[in-house]
């Protein structure tokens, strides 16, 4: 699964995550890192949706942003 929305939509989804979920992005990133060791993007999105009740768009944005930040740390 790939990111199917624009950079602007991605930023807007991320900006709404704290208000909608009650958790900031770093908390979601910690949840992803502490959760099951899924390698596939869509498995991590599905886990956030199923385990935490997130909407698909927000789960996708969180996983994508987590991947971007992790890559920046590793390769930055």
TrEMBL record:
Pfam families named in the record: DUF4287
InterPro entries, alphabetized: DUF4287 (IPR025629)
Top-rank lineage group of the source organism: Bacteria
Protein's UniProt name: DUF4287 domain-containing protein
């Amino acid at each position: 699964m790939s990111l199917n929305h624009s950079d602007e939509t991605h930023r807007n989804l991320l900006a709404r995550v704290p208000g909608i979920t009650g958790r900031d992005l770093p908390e979601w990133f910690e949840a992803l890192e502490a959760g099951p060791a899924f390698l596939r993007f869509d498995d991590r999105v599905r886990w956030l949706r199923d385990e935490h009740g997130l909407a698909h768009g927000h789960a996708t944005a969180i996983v994508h942003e987590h991947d971007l930040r992790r890559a920046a740390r590793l390769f930055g």
